[in-house]
Amino acid sequence: MTVLRARGLGKKYKRRWALADCTLEIGGGHVTGLVGPNGAGKSTLLNIASGMLEPTTGTIEVCGGTPGSGAAQLAKVGYVAQNTPVYGGLTVEDHLHLGARLNPRWDDDLARKRIERIGLDPKQHAGKLSGGQRAQLALTIGIAKRPELLLLDEPVAALDPLARREFLADLMEAVAEHGLSVVMSSHLVADLERVCDHLIVLVDSQVRIAGDIDDLLATHHRLTGPRRELDTLPSDQHVISARHTDRQTTVLVRTEAPILDPAWTVSGLTLEDVVLEYMTNPVTARPALEVLR
């Protein structure tokens, strides 16, 4: 099952393209991390997927329908925007009443138990809550509407480490309990590695790499050895980046085959290493493998 499919998707503001010719596909049942540099189009993509924006070009399908096309479609998607917006003048209780009025699948029992468990006072105005509490309130509303897909745009960017950890733990609990598919954008790769099983790196609106995180880590290697030309490498070693000194070559490769050349010292990579290499090397030195699904 595919929960999000985009083909040639673009959004233009006057003369500036915030997203251009974006093509990607996200399968259901995953917690997918969406990462990329500022201006890559992550927030624009999520806004279009939620129905908050209409695309200028291309097509997008979310949970089998067109984003924002009606009440039934809106009910399928939960969305927590980058600043975890809540209404400062409304109490926590008011937010739950509003959620119940606006969402046909609203699970009031889930929302109230969650509010009690995380220690929010129903009478407290949202404007008086801490950043972490506001994020938890926004997440509660997103989960309690019982969506098929939950979109999170930098939900923990402004939180301190403890509040981030609590938010992510609650997110994983909700995924386990309710079978949510999640797409979460973040600059914090360590947080993505903690909660995501799937990753997409978006650079200049283009998918640079996508796949299961375990597979990505298992198939990327750093090779260090005597200086050599790249065309001497086996054809199944797809070069992502290469650096040379007078005597040494260091290459990051992607391959599913074992590396048998004894001249190489082979080391593994962290997820952050992989992400940064794809973000800083927009064109591979040799053609990359087909994007994982």
From TrEMBL:
This protein's record includes keyword Transport: yes
ABC transporter domain location: 4-229
Keywords per UniProt: ATP-binding, Nucleotide-binding, Transport
A UniProt-annotated Pfam family: ABC_tran
GO MF terms, alphabetically ordered: ATP binding; ATP hydrolysis activity
InterPro entries: AAA+_ATPase, ABC_transporter-like_ATP-bd, ABC_Transporter_VariousFunc, P-loop_NTPase
Keyword Nucleotide-binding: yes
Gene3D superfamilies: P-loop containing nucleotide triphosphate hydrolases
Xref: PANTHER family: ABC TRANSPORTER ATP-BINDING PROTEIN ALBC-RELATED
Name of the featured protein: ABC transporter ATP-binding protein
Native organism taxonomy: Bacteria, Bacillati, Actinomycetota, Actinomycetes, Pseudonocardiales
